[in-house]
Amino acid sequence: MHMFDSEFMRLAFAAGAVIGLIAPAVGFFLVQRGMSLVGDGIGHVAFAGVAAGYLLGVSPVGAALVAAVVGGAALEWLRTSRKTAGDQALAFIFYTGIAGGVVLISAAGALNVNLFTYLFGSILTVTREDVAVVAVLGGAGLVTIGLLYRAFAGVVVDEEAALVTGVPVTLLNLIITVFAALTVAVSMRIVGILLIAALMVLPVMAADRLAWSMRSALGLAMTFGIASVFGGLTIAYYADLPPGGTIVLLAAAAFLLASSVEAVRAH
Amino acid sequence: MPLAVELKGVSFGYAPGQPVLSGVDLRVAQGELVAIAGPNGGGKTTLVRLALGLVTPDRGEVRLFGEPAGRFSRRSNLGYLPQRAQVGTDTPITVEELVSAGRLAAGPLLGPLRQRDRELVARTIERVGLGELARKPLGSLSGGQQQRAFIAKALAGEPALLVMDEPTTGVDAESQEALAALLDRLHRELNVTVLYVSHEFGAIERYVDRLVLVRGSIVFDGSPSELPELWHDPSHAHV
Lengths: 267, 239
Known about the structure:
Oligomer: heterodimer
Strand content of chain B: 25-35%
Radius of gyration of chain B: 18 Å
Order of helices and strands of chain A: HHHHHHHHHHH
Number of domains of chain A: 1
Radius of gyration of chain A: 18 Å
Helix content of chain B: 10-25%
Number of domains of chain B: 1
Strand order of the largest sheet of chain B: 6-7-8-3-9-10
CATH class of chain A: Mainly Alpha
């Protein structure tokens, strides 16, 4: 039986195509700003959102989306307005998110719910509605990044000079953080809350080893991202492995391969 | 001549009771090339940050082109080369990409660069002598060439005021000489006001209209010919 004979695989590939592009595209600008772990921090807040969804009897994915965006905005506010060091702001969001999630899920009496679905992803649970949400939000994210690429890149290149010359640095940083939150929320059904951050970082790390310009680095990162998702889903289907973990291991392998190529070229 | 930068009775400290600068008065006319020097810790960079409106003085007033510096409305008219200028990322970046980033504030934020902006970026790269290296990764260039690329980035926004903080740090003597000559040429061709900050005057001394020595306050402000011999090395303990 071919994997595309199954509807859930067709849906997983459709959603995965968007996730494989948007995650490294958003992650590209986080990694360049030295904020590789932002996706992780927001993921933990998204977990609290899933728990809140169970407690309130609303869609866990919708609640996670709201929580992730609020968490991302709070992170950026702590970093800029409150002058909190980036890693401390991240630690605050990280631990508050996971602790809030544990308390809320316990209060909802939902500890017996299969949380693995959200934490590590599951292609079996992807619905047509999920794919529609991923397509709309992910597509909007990709279009926005395309339109604001120069602005994001300009801030990454020299944030202080951008600030001096009147570029709205705070707004641009907030937009990227909010897109990171959206990416985490829409990706958690397939890759999982705990693993999506890896798909935002590892393809970028691999691309940096092979790129010859900033634009080529972004293109390579998105190529590695979508290749990891498609490859991971295929292997997961035929080898009966968890998709999130398989996708991330492929992205890690891409980084190791790119590092080897870089080392060979250096010689 | 209208003023580009004006500081009147400015005092500033990062902590209460520990002033970095006291009673600073400085007027820079539009079109001037002024070197600001002094020992490390003397307040040069703080002076620049005050002038650009990045920090607010504890006392006194700072104006940029006649407007309060903290609320300056034409920031895209400023060009800034920060201390230890380097790209804030490990990703390879070409000279063209770097200089294009300097065009961000002057052009639209959305979408690709317009044709006019692309031509201006190309001209600016040519102007600093890097035309043939425009598509090369910045990391493959020498220290002097990289510094030229950063100067091109600061100039790409067609600034009325260019502020350069320690632009020759880590650059060999020969490249410093070439950079000083380049800066003199750019200053004359573009009629841009330049504040050149350095811990020593070095090669720039013979090109500037004025030298300003900063050590907690302004201890000398005049033409290079008026500078006492002892102070030609501004990092000297006696300054």
